[in-house]
Amino acid sequence: MLDDMRRPPRLTARPGVPPVRAVERAVALLRAFAPERPRLGLSELARAAGLDKGTARRLLLTLAAAGLVEFDERAQLYRLGADVLGIAAAVEAGRDLREVAAPVLTDVTEKTGATAFLWVHHDGTALCVERVRAPLLRIDATWFTVGARAFLNCGGGPRVLLAYITEEEREAALAGELPQRTPASETDPARLREAARTIRARGWELAVDDFFVGLAALGVPILDRRGAFVGALSITGLTAGIVEDGRPRHLDILLGAATRIGEQLR
């Protein structure tokens, strides 16, 4: 499910430092919102956060006072507040990479007609830190926005991350949830390890129908000037636009773009 993709693994409290339950509950309410669910009712929010409606309402009132949540009286629905954008702007994860890569992604989309994504590994998932939408909205993978997460067993960009992260990070990801999104989704850890070796050896990944039937994705790694892995670049679109005679289309464009990004990174 999309909300599962967007939700990072639950953090474990440090020994001797108990978590603050009210903060955990408030965070759960904020995480209930998603691109395809930007406005939610009290019952939906309470259910998503595992709370009773009275507790959810009190927490939402506090979040609203802080500017993190807004309430539409007429529709009786909640939505994230504008102050969330200010907090998001301060996030450092992938910032330097994103600033360098943004114009390159625009160029990739213009040349390929596909939606371009920039991914980094974070807490066992693929975190989307930049996206440039395809000009044809009907083929846009709208479930992926900046800040969205994906598991590493599906998709061109996420599977490239699986191949290039450290062995310890890979094993941690493979020990977690590996969702079967479509019949083509690979969920067997042993086969995913083998796939990771193959991806790393050839330097790219072509994923077809494994995230959404009818779509394909092509992903390549981004290496900085020292050769260190920093993230993945991918494109997504209708399979006919990404695959030709079983081979990836636009591979040279994507590899060139990844090189351009890497050369600008310090």
Please explain how this structure is put together.
The protein is α+β, with helices and mostly antiparallel strands. It is built from eleven helices and eleven strands. Strands 6-5-4-9-8-7 form a six-stranded antiparallel β-sheet, sandwiched between helices. Strand 4 and strand 5 form a beta hairpin. Helix 7 (156-164) crosses helix 9 (189-202). The radius of gyration is 20 Å and the shape is globular.
Search tags:
11 strands; Arc Repressor Mutant, subunit A; 3-stranded antiparallel β-sheet; alpha+beta; 11 helices; Beta-Lactamase; 6-stranded antiparallel β-sheet; 266 residues; disordered N terminus; 2 domains; globular
Q: What's a quick, concise take on this entry?
A:
The chain is an alpha+beta fold and 266 residues long.
Detail the topology: elements first, then pairings.
Blueprint: H1 2-6, H2 21-31, E1 39-40, H3 42-49, H4 53-65, E2 69-72, E3 77-80, H5 83-88, H6 95-112, E4 115-122, E5 125-132, E6 149-150, H7 156-164, H8 167-174, H9 189-202, E7 205-208, E8 215-223, E9 229-238, H10 239-242, E10 243-244, E11 247-248, H11 251-263
Antiparallel strand pairs: 1-3, 2-3, 4-5, 4-9, 5-6, 7-8, 8-9, 10-11
**Average of the residue pLDDT scores:** 87
Distance between the termini: 37 Å
The ordered string of helix (H) and strand (E) elements is: HHEHHEEHHEEEHHHEEEHEEH
Structure summary, number of beta strands:
11
Strand order of the largest sheet: 6-5-4-9-8-7
Percentage of β-strand residues? 15-25%
Radius of gyration, whole Å? 20 Å
| Largest sheet report | 6 strands, antiparallel
Sum up the overall morphology in one term.
globular
CATH architecture verdict of the largest domain? 2-Layer Sandwich
Structural class of the secondary elements?
alpha+beta
Give the CATH level 1 class of the largest domain.
Alpha Beta
Q: Estimate nothing, just give the exact number of structural domains.
A: 2
Number of separate helices: 11
Helix content: 40-55%
Question: By CATH's scheme, which homologous superfamily of the largest domain applies?
Answer: GAF domain
| CATH-defined topology of the largest domain | Beta-Lactamase
Low-confidence stretches: 1-11
